[in-house]
Amino acid sequence: MRPSPFLVDTHCHLADAAFDADRDAVLARAGAAGVGHVVAIGESLAGSERAVALARGRRGLSATAGVHPHEAGAWSAGAAARVRELLAAPETVAVGETGLDYHYMHSPRETQRAAFEAQLALGTELGKPVIVHARDADEDMAAMLGAVQSDPPIVVLHSFSSGEAVWNAGMVIHAYFSFSGMITFKNWKMTDRLTACPPDRLLLETDAPYLAPVPHRGRRNEPGFVRDVAERAAGLRGESLETLAQRTTDNARRCFGARIDGTL
Ligand SMILES: [Zn+2]
């Protein structure tokens, strides 16, 4: 039996330097807030190494390995080989985060598409979920998601806030839709997506240290604040916190595997 509520922060940059001074205290607060498990995201090769090292030997933590679109220029045969090695570790549950970001354009579009395509292929080959970041790239994102063929579905659309094309493409491939603290913001306009999300596709995340939810907005975000995201999501969907927590944790378990049952 899991303690109740048992929430999973499916997207936290826990290896970020923002947590170097007080990471253990942050995790203790998360546990006290009902967070059972945290997925530490790798956003670069070095960040993936750090995330995997953090999760090693800790039941309540898992890691991902991949290269963010901002870092897509660093994708190479060597990087791919190292990501593949990191994905073989038992604590590494997903590829990413990868994706397309045409808002900041830290890497050229072709470079981003090539790195994203390679990481989607890696996830498909290994049967591991792929954490996808999408910003201002709806047309290309929808087309690339449309080409994904995998059963069971592997795509996680993280901090979902994309338009119609990406939503539709995600629905077709049975993607998971992960909602962040953005759903607590005054200017959040996509509650219809949150309420329309199929119950077995819904995930929750913080994207800490970024995107702190209300009432913590403007401060450093941390995994315990996924509780605020969950309470808001439950309210908007007209469900109890317990029901939503159970549902989203079941989904995280199905998506990322048995390691999610390990507790902080
Ligand atoms: Zn992220």
Low-confidence stretches: none
Distance between the termini: 15 Å
Proportion of residues in helical segments: 25-40%
Largest sheet: 8 strands, parallel
The portion of residues forming beta strands comes to 15-25%
Counting helices, strands and paired strands, the structural category is: alpha/beta
Which whole number gives the mean pLDDT?
96
Strand line-up in the sheet with most strands: 1-2-3-4-5-6-7-8
**Cα radius of gyration in angstroms:** 17 Å
Number of helical segments with 4 or more residues:
9
Number of strands: 8
Query: Based on the structure, what is the oligomeric state of the protein chains?
Result: single chain
Bound molecules: zinc ion
Order of helices and strands: EHEHEHEHEHEHEHEHH
Shape: globular
